[in-house]
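Structure ticket #2291
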Amino acid sequence: MKSIKAIADRETHEQFSDKMRYIFIELPLFTKEEDECETDFERWIYVLKNMETLQRLPFKARKAVFEKLEQIVDIAGMSKEDRLKYDESIKVYRDQLAVMEYGRLQGEARGEARGEARGRANVARSMKADGMPVETIARYTGLTPEEIEQL
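Resolution: structure written out below.
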């Protein structure tokens, strides 16, 4: 019969959770080569086992996650000086994105305001053409009597 070990407090021996478990993998026992890895799990184990000696990250073409892992490895392998430069360039890039997004939102807001103003002016023109009183047009469109007279 198989025994299952639970994670428990050292002193009280109280079990933390019956829903959590750990699986220990002994990397030296994993002997598959790159071309023998068939599942994503095997690919991950291969990458973890061989991380220090890999010249290139395998499986990149198969999954975007391995491409992302390669980027992380490249960044983690930088010298302290290069990492500081990289972090600063990322900060500048993100700041530029934020400024561009703010400008876009401001442009949208101005465009909406202009569109609303044009819409109110068009409604006011139609109401004026139908002979409605200026006070009524002003009440429904939010335009001033002077703005209505100029239409």
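Closing remark: DSSP finds five helices and no strands in the chain.
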